[in-house]
Amino acid sequence: MNNAIGSRFLNGSCVCRRVLKIGSVRLLVPQQHDAAHLQRNVMTAHSTFPPVKELSSKIRCSQWTEIQRQLSGRAGGTMNVFDRTMKRRQKKWAASLQDSDKYDYLRDEVGSRVADRVYDIARTFPLALDIGCGKSHIAEHLHKEVVEQLFLTDISEKSLRNTRESEIPTRCVMADEEFLPFKENTFDLVVSSLSLHWINDLPGALRQINQVLKPDGVFIGAMVGGETLYELRCSLQLAELEREGGFSPHVSPYTAVTDLGNLLGQAGFSMLTVDIDEIQVHYPGILEVMSDLQGMGESNCAWNRKSMLHRDTILAAAAIYQEMYGSENRSVPATFEILYMIGWKPHDSQAKPAKRGSANVSFGDLSKIGQPSTKDKS
């Protein structure tokens, strides 16, 4: 049902569609109906958005995003793996910590690597969008010579208030990554870092990213891959099997790298690039691993998660973690598999593959390169 309503809204057949203009960007919001039918907040419209530090109550998601967020937060929906309401609470709690900056090491590192991929493209982007920006971990590594203006979105209002200073002019919009409130063909660049692995409908989210991009626009993203935290997952499963006779999922399911290229292609992207990075962080023990994940706002939010761990199970898991993966200095590793993706929105100016059968050189001839010819032998 969510997908059907969303498609009607995006293609303009929904009767409640109207356009709200903020600066040079137009956002899609539904018309206000009677209070009994729809009671929700509307994004405050301004010709220019004030800096995030001055927004107070003015950071608001669009009406449509609010409806979709509520639909996504209920169990039983299509592809509803994650409790998005719980994830929003986790991010809010993590951003409220007084020492929250000490948990940003992974996001800062991945954000800098996404920024490096932006610099690899030899062009200037007049208008860009950062989806799931957090504290703007990508923007702090970019220069205004590369990105002239940047829109930041996140489901956590607290994170938007804590965004770091950047030389790039930025505008903040509280919006769900699954339901982007922007008009089609708006942005020259869309980036995302460590946010898309909490999406329920990842194919639909990628299609929306493709829609908001201008033709020949590029999407550069990073998300957590399927082998992330395999040490923690294995240790908890073995401990629960030993102490409780069965196990529950304590680490969220992640996307496999083998599926990512197909998802980007189905979303309409061309000239795809997918690569993998592994970042290994060493901790004193399993409790520190779990504490840092909570401080990052990366705790499990799957609907089938177990609400608590027994003390005996945690102690057993800590012993198993140390025995199976511990190093000589008694520290334990936690591996984060990061999937990087680059996809372009099709345009006539882009290079296209040659027609089948048009090649004038055989692959069999490649082995003969560098070998002396018949004349040389004679």
TrEMBL record:
Keywords: Methyltransferase, Mitochondrion, Oxidoreductase, Transferase, Transit peptide. The keyword Protease does not apply. Residues 129-220 form the Methyltransferase type domain. One of its GO terms (cellular component) is mitochondrion. It comes from the Eukaryota. The keyword Methyltransferase applies. Gene3D superfamilies: Vaccinia Virus protein VP39 (3.40.50.150). It is found in: Mitochondrion. One of its GO terms (molecular function) is oxidoreductase activity. GO terms for biological process: methylation; mitochondrial respiratory chain complex I assembly. Its main location: mitochondrion. Residues 350-378 are annotated as: Disordered. Belongs to the methyltransferase superfamily. This is Arginine-hydroxylase NDUFAF5, mitochondrial.
